[in-house]
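INTERNAL AUDIT FORM
Audit reference: QA-55
Scope: verify that the stored structure record matches its stored sequence.
Auditor: D.O.
Record contents follow.
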Amino acid sequence: MEIGAQRRNTRLIKVTLFLITLVASIPFLWILRDVARMMFAPIVYYDNGVFFTWLKNTSIFVFASMGISVASCITAGFVLAVLDVPFRRFLLFSTLATMLIPITAMAMPLYVMVDRLGLNNTLLGLILASSYFPFGAFLSYLYYSSVLPPDLVGMGRIDGLGDFGIYRHLGIPLSKSLISVVTFFAFVGLWNSYQLPRVLLAEPSKSIMSIGIEVFYGQGTTLIALMMVIPSVLLYLASQRTIARGIFSGAVKE
C-alpha cells in the first residue's frame, strides 16, 4: 500500500510540474509565434548591414563589461571577506544599499560621470558605466566568508604568504564555482541591459541590438525578446552544474 501511494504521489508531482512548466512556457511560445511572422532579412541587410554593427557593438560591450565586473567583484569580495580593511561594515552596507537602487535611478548620475570624463556616446563610456556590479561583489563576499575560514588564512600567513599571495594561491583556486555564478549573472544583466545604453548612446552606428532594433524597427519588440532570451538560456545550460555548485557552496558544512 505504501509503495502504491508513493507511486501515485510521484505521478501527481510529475504531472503538476509538467503543467507548471507548460504554463510558464506560454509567453516564450507566444514570442516564437510573433517572430515567425516577421521577415528577418530586411533587418539583417537594411542600411548596409547595420544589424551586424549592432551585434558587434553588443558583443564588445557585454564581454568587456563582464570581464571588468567579474574581476572587480571577485577581488572586492575577497578583500571584504578575508582582509582586515578599514570601514568594512560601511563598505558592506554601501554595497548592499546600492543593490537595492534600481538602474533607472542610477542612470542620470552615471550619465553625468561619463559625460565629465568625455566618454559620452561611446562604447567605452557605456562599458565603464555598466561594469559596476554590487550584487556580484556581495555574493563574492558571502562565498569567501564560507570557503576561506580564518584558520586556513592563518596557515597561509604562517607559510609566508602576504595578502596578494593568499589571494593568488588560495582565493583564486577556490573561486572557480564563484566565477561561473558571477559570470552568469553579469552576462544576463548586461545582455538584457536597456536603460543605461538608451541614455548613454545616441548615434545609430554606436547602438547595441536592443536599442537599435527598437528605435529603427518599432515592431521588433518580440525579436528583441527572443534575442535577449536565447543566449542567456544557452549559457545557463552550458554551465548549469557549475552554477548550481557555486550557488550552494558553503550552504552545507561538514
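Auditor finding: record pair retrieved intact. The chain has two domains: 1-37, 41-248.
Action required: none
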